[in-house]
Specification:
This protein is α+β, with helices and mostly antiparallel strands and about 400 residues long. It is built from 18 helices and seven strands.
Length: about 400
C-alpha cells in the first residue's frame, strides 16, 4: 500500500506548503507525517490493550491503515488547495475542511492500485473509520477526533522541522493517560484526570504553533499567492489546472488529481507562458514575495466604526474583488496583484474542526465520572473569541494602506 502511486505522491506534497520561505527546515511532507500517524495509532492501541480494552487483529489492522491513509487525498500544497476546490469542485457543497477527506475516501474506494492491494471488506472497514458516523467509536477517535494520532504527530513533527519549541509536549504521558470511555453502545477515546496537565500542554502547543507558525505573516502571504496564482491559471486556461480543481469524483478526475503535486505546479506554472500566473509563481519560486501593505484586526479597538467593521467582516467575493480594484488603483499595481484576504486566527478554545478544543476532550475524573476538559480550573487558557484579521497584500511600491 505504501508503494502505490497515490501514497508515494505524498512525498511531493509538503506538510506546510511553502513555509520553508520563513522556516528553511520546513520541507517535510505528508508521506512522513502519514507514517508517523500510523506509528502513533499503533502505540495508542497497544496502551489501550494494556489497560484491558479488547482489540481484535482486524480492528488493529483497520485503525493503523486508516491512520496511514488519512491524508492521502491532499492536493498540491496540502490545505491551500482546499480554497480552490471549494469554488470549483463538483462535490455538492462539501465544506472546505472536509474536501480532502472526501477525496481520501474516493482514492481508497476507487484507485485501481488500492483496489488490487486492499480487499473490498478492508476498504469498507477503513472508510467506516474515516467517514463521520452517528455513533462514537474510540477506534475512529484514534484516527480523527479532537485528540487523535494525526494531531499528536504533526505538532511534534512540525515543531521539529520548523525549529521551534512551541509545539513540544509530553507525548508519552498523553498516550499513557488515554482511556476508553463506555457510554451505552458508544465508546469514546478519553483521558485519565492524571494526564490532564499533559493534555493541557498539548492544547497550548497547538495554540502557539497556530499563532507563531501556521498563521505566520509570511506563511499567509505565500498561501494567498498560491491561491491567486491558481485562480489566474484557471481564468487564463493554463492546461490541466481547471481539470485538477474541478474534481467530481469520476475515475478520470481522480487520475488527474493524483498526477499533480507541489513540484509539478511550481514547475509548470512558473514557465507556463501565461503572464499573470507565471508572474505569481516565478515570484514564489524565487521568493520575491508580495508584501503586507496593511494588516487589520477586525475588532472594535482597531476598527471602531461598527458599520465599517461589519462590512469588512461580511465581505463577499464580489465586494472583495471591487475592493481589490479600488486599492490597486491607489497602490499603482494591477488588480490581480492586489489581494484582500480575511483570515480567522483561531484560539484553542474555539469550536473549530482545526482547533484542539478542550470542550471536546473527555476526562475521566479521579472519582470515576466523565467531565469535559474545559470544566477543570487547571487548564491554562481562558476562553477568548476567535479573531478575524484582514490582510491587504500586493507588490511593494512604497505604499502602506491605512
Amino acid at each position: 500500500m505504501i508503494d502505490t502511486h497515490a501514497f508515494q505522491r505524498l512525498r511531493r506534497i509538503r506538510q506546510l506548503a511553502l513555509a520553508d520561505h520563513v522556516y528553511p527546515g520546513a520541507v517535510h511532507n505528508r508521506f512522513q507525517h502519514s507514517i508517523g500517524a500510523l506509528h502513533l495509532a499503533g502505540r495508542i492501541l497497544q496502551r489501550l490493550e494494556q489497560l484491558g480494552t479488547a482489540i481484535s487483529n482486524v480492528d488493529r489492522r483497520t485503525v493503523r491503515l486508516a491512520a496511514l491513509l488519512h491524508d492521502i487525498g491532499h492536493g498540491p500544497f496540502s490545505h491551500v488547495s482546499e480554497y480552490v476546490l471549494t469554488h470549483l469542485a463538483a462535490m455538492g457543497g462539501t465544506p472546505r475542511d472536509k474536501i480532502h477527506e472526501t477525496i481520501t475516501a474516493d482514492i481508497i474506494a476507487k484507485d485501481p492500485q488500492m483496489i488490487s492491494i486492499v480487499s473490498k471488506l478492508d476498504r469498507d472497514r477503513i472508510l467506516r473509520l474515516i467517514n463521520e458516523n452517528e455513533k462514537r467509536d474510540f477506534k475512529a477517535d484514534i484516527v480523527s477526533s479532537t485528540l487523535d494520532a494525526d494531531k499528536m504527530d504533526y505538532l511534534l513533527r512540525d515543531a521539529h522541522f520548523v525549529g521551534v519549541k512551541y509545539g513540544v509536549y509530553d507525548l508519552d504521558q498523553v498516550i499513557d493517560s488515554l482511556r476508553v470511555i463506555e457510554s451505552g453502545d458508544e465508546t469514546i477515546l478519553g483521558v485519565d484526570e492524571r494526564g490532564l496537565l499533559a493534555v493541557d500542554q498539548l492544547v497550548v502547543a497547538k495554540h502557539h504553533m497556530t499563532q507563531q507558525v501556521y498563521a505566520h505573516r509570511v506563511r499567509t502571504i505565500t498561501d494567498v499567492m498560491i491561491i491567486r496564482g491558481l485562480e489566474l491559471a484557471i481564468e487564463d486556461a493554463v492546461p490541466g489546472i481547471r481539470e485538477l480543481y474541478e474534481y467530481d469524483g469520476s475515475e478520470e478526475a481522480l487520475a488527474t488529481y493524483l498526477s499533480f503535486d507541489d513540484e509539478r505546479i511550481l514547475s509548470e506554472l512558473s514557465r507556463c507562458g501565461n503572464p499573470r500566473p507565471e508572474s505569481v509563481f516565478r515570484r514564489l519560486v524565487s521568493r520575491q514575495l508580495f508584501k503586507d501593505l496593511s494588516i487589520i484586526d477586525l475588532t472594535p479597538i482597531d476598527v471602531p466604526d461598527a458599520i465599517i467593521r461589519f462590512k469588512l467582516l461580511s465581505l463577499t467575493p464580489e465586494r472583495t474583488s471591487q475592493l481589490e480594484l479600488e486599492i490597486a488603483g491607489l497602490a499603482n499595481c494591477e488588480p490581480w496583484e492586489l489581494i484582500v484576504h480575511k483570515k480567522s486566527v483561531k484560539v484553542p478554545l474555539s469550536h473549530s474542526p482545526t482547533a484542539l478544543d478542550p470542550a471536546g476532550i473527555h476526562i475521566v475524573s479521579l472519582e470515576g465520572h466523565t467531565r469535559m476538559m474545559n470544566e477543570f480550573d487547571e487548564i491554562s487558557l481562558a476562553r477568548v473569541p476567535e479573531t478575524e484579521r484582514l490582510h491587504v497584500i500586493g507588490p511593494e511600491n512604497g505604499l502602506v494602506v491605512d
